[in-house]
Amino acid sequence: MIRYIIRRLLLMIPVAFLVTIGVFTLARISPVDPVLVFAGEDRDPVQLEAIRHQLGLDQSLPIQYVAWLTHALQGDLGRSFQNHQRVTEAIVERLPATLELGAAALLISVSFALVIGIVSAVKRNSLVDLLSTSVTLMGVSFPSFFLGVLLILLFAYVIPGKIFPPGGFVPITTDVGDNLRRLVLPAVTLATGSLALNLRQVRSSLLEVFGLEYVRTARAKGLRERAVIVRHALKNALIPVVTLVGIQVGAIIEGAVITETIFSWPGVGRLVVQAIPSHDYPVVQGVVLVSALSFMLSTLLVDVLYARVDPRISFESAAA
After folding, report:
1. What is the C-alpha to C-alpha distance for residues 157 and 72, in angstroms, rounded to an integer?
2. What is the pLDDT of residue 320?
């Protein structure tokens, strides 16, 4: 297993290298000059050239890329064009808020998907199953920006008492209660889409496992239905669910972009949204690179969990 993990980590290096080339190129194909955005109303050619030299944009693209990559390998992702803050520092400051939102959304998604998915599979074609299918279709159909605005209008303005604030963030270390109240709406918004996918995956996987011979044998031996589900069916049915959840873990930053913007949640997703209009290259490049690395690490974690969930899966031969 250790050899397999090392091999996967080494394979991430060329992938990360390609990601750096892609994000660096895409960030610079825009016709808008970031120097003009940075300078504001000042259009003095001498001043613009001084700003261009200060930001390192007067060099050729290959030289700019090599310089940025060299510093990135040392943990320095550059400085923001807007406020001169180090990009690494900006990401580290906002990452806890994104991780809190993503963890809450995953907890809601996975817990509800397991409970409702198991009930739907056991009571196939029942009223509960039909309702869960309808909720799934609604969850997939509603865009997060529409659902977020709808939840804000409903719980912050329509329902008396303003149960949940419409946005903003309070650190959990400052006020636990206020933090949780402000977390509910964005977490539900972010969780809805993945909840629908996870629920359908749990249901379909369980129905497939229920038809296998070893499950029928367990029932024929007189085991209680709960024991059949928990001890025999659920463990094998969770393998594709682990894959799906692992992908969602890696995509937390991307998924939180819209949600954080709607609810004024000061996370990494909102950071990159604020950087795009001003063509703040270093911030965009840094966030995309961190997001890609998190996605690759989450897929590695999923593969490692495979061996824990299903003992039949082994990576020893692959590592050799």
Report:
1. 45
2. 47
CA dihedral 158, 163, 165, 166 (to 10 degrees): -30
> Do residues 193 and 144 make contact, with C-beta atoms less than 8 angstroms apart?
yes
Using CA atoms, how far residue 311 sits from 204, 224, 229, 304, 305, in Å, is 22, 24, 18, 11, 10
Q: Is the pTM of this model over 0.85?
A: no
Structural domains in the chain, CATH included, are: 94-267+308-319 (1.10.3720.10)
Q: What pairs with residue 86 in β-bridges?
A: 79
Alpha carbon distance 28, 281 (integer Å): 8
CA pair distance 303, 320, nearest whole angstrom? 16
**Cα–Cα dist 110/120, whole Å:** 15
279: left (phi over 0), alpha (psi -120 to 50) or beta: left
CA distance 18 to 16: 5
Read off the pLDDT band of 113 (50, 70, 90).
confident
Q: Which long-range contacts (CB under 8 A, 24 or more apart) does 125-130 make?
A: 129/203
* 79 strand-pairing partners: 86
pLDDT for 210? 79
Residue carrying the six token digits 């394979």: 11
Structure-token pair, residue 291: 């997001």
Per-residue CA distances from 83 to 87, 92, 290 (Å): 10, 16, 20
Write down the pLDDT at residue 92.
92
